[in-house]
Amino acid sequence: MTGRRVLWRAVVRNRWQLGTGTGLISLHQVCESLVPILIGVIVDQAIGPGDGGALLLWVAVLAGLFTVLSMAYRFGARRLMIAIADEAHLLRVEVASKIMHPRGIRTDRRAGDLLTVATTDTDNTSYLLDYVPRVAGAVTATAVSAVALLVIDVQLGLAVLVGTPVVLLGLQAATPLITKRVTDQQNLAGEATSLAADLVSGVRPLRGIGAEHAAAGRYDEVSRRSLRAALRAARTQGAYLSASTAGGALLAGGIAILAGWFALNGTITAGELITVIGLAQFLMEPIGTLAVVPGWVAEARASADRVATVLDAPALLPEGTETLDAGSPDLELRALRYGPLDGVDLHVRPGEFVGVVPHRSADGEALVKILSGRVAPDEYEGGVLIGGTHLAHLDPDHARRAMLVEPHLTDLFTGTIEENVTAGGPLDESTLAASAADQVVSAHPDGLGHVVAERGASLSGGQRQRLALARALTARPAILVMHDPTTAVDAVTEHEIARGLRALRHPGSGHLTTVVVTSSPALLAMTDRVVVLDGGRIAAEGTHAGLAVTDDDYNRAVLR
């Protein structure tokens, strides 16, 4: 898929609304161009001879012309606005569906940039449906005006027919530069938006390590680059607009001056002079529209190119076809190599609660990234098996139902607490207690109906973590993998959560499996077994109590 194809598809799938709207807008422009012609006729046929009856007749015709003119624009604009809104909606849904597809997409764009593509760029692309009728109307108006001028005087008509293409061709030379600068502007604006989203979501950790000034400096640099690109694009488009306006004005002025000369020589009548001057003034609008269209199309094309890169992005995960039998699957890692991981072998049995302690945070992040399906199978070595089936061979929906991976940094969504926890399913009070999210509910007068701001900005870091954990527990997956789920809560609450997790998912001889990647002693104390990662490999294994006694490195990493 290319940007050109995205634009062409927008035209094709809105052809009925676009065709009807374009026809009505063109009719409106025909009527607009007939107004000065009709005024000239009134002067020659009624006012000049002093014929009152003819004057009434032609004024009635003029009133009818204005009625058709107004109605054509009203209904044409309505058709076109429907087409633009529909196309923008369809593009947003397509882009969002592509981004949220269970198989994921291979892209270098970050979340903020993808959000810009799904909103701003889809809107800009749909605006092509506004440009097409504008061009058609401008061409129609120019053609009708040229024919009228040819009838009045051949030289005047030829001035329009020759002068208009000359002006447009001269301006066309700037189109590639406009396209390039608009594309640069949109790419840098997307980069700035993406960085802003990352910084807002991570503002608390940045403050914790005193890095907010460095982060602000980085954003300032990216923002300034985006500003410079926007100013370059604006200057280019401003110069182009000035040149196009001047070109159209000179052409219209030249026609009016030539008509005045012909009137003095008696070549044309007074009414024809009025018609020519009116058409010359009227022509400035369609010629100006035709002159600025390349800039509009350049912006739509740049946005369509960005939309196309998302829609055409290949899937991150293969199209797995295998399914899992009902029951409790196990989780097995075989000689897993990715990033810092250097041959990890781990078998987690059904119903087991296992803790993974990475001495290096990169080891834990790499492990969680693979399990969450954010790494393509061809980017790592070894295998991840669920119930004896390779993760890459499983249908993504089955894989996600069998194993849920809750990353360290999670997002909440605009809505109530209950909507964030249940995600549309039934509410389970036990998950609120196990995650200590019931304390978050009781802290707000509206309880479960308390409205959460976008990305959970209205809550503290600990409250967001507890609600995200409650959401994961409510899903009740057969295998639940968590990465540092309690880093933002206090020690007392952390112990409550650890006991709640154990009681909820491992009350006795259950079949739910839990893996927690953490260095929290409260959580590790509740596990059946602890695995230690060091240097990308499993360096030690045992119970939390046993490792605390025998492994000094484990003590330094965990017991704080």
Automatic annotation (TrEMBL):
Alphabetical UniProt keywords: ATP-binding, Membrane, Nucleotide-binding, Transmembrane, Transmembrane helix
Q: Where is the ABC transmembrane type-1 domain?
A: 21-291
Presence of keyword Ligase: no
Q: Where are the transmembrane segments?
A: 21-43, 55-73, 135-152, 158-178, 238-264
Q: Name one Pfam family in it.
A: ABC_tran
Q: Where in the cell is it found?
A: Cell membrane
Q: Residue limits of the ABC transporter domain?
A: 326-560
Please report the record's description of how this protein sits within the membrane.
Multi-pass membrane protein
GO MF, one term, reads: ABC-type oligopeptide transporter activity
CDD domains, A to Z = ABC_6TM_exporters
PROSITE patterns per the record?
ABC_TM1F (PS50929), ABC_TRANSPORTER_1 (PS00211), ABC_TRANSPORTER_2 (PS50893)
Q: Which GO terms describe its cellular component?
A: plasma membrane
The cross-references to InterPro entries, in alphabetical order and at most eight, read: ABC1_TM_dom, ABC1_TM_sf, ABC_transporter-like_ATP-bd, ABC_transporter-like_CS, P-loop_NTPase, Type_1_exporter
Establish whether keyword Nucleotide-binding is in the entry.
yes
Recorded hits in SUPFAM superfamilies, A to Z, give: ABC transporter transmembrane region, P-loop containing nucleoside triphosphate hydrolases
Q: What is this protein called?
A: ABC transporter ATP-binding protein
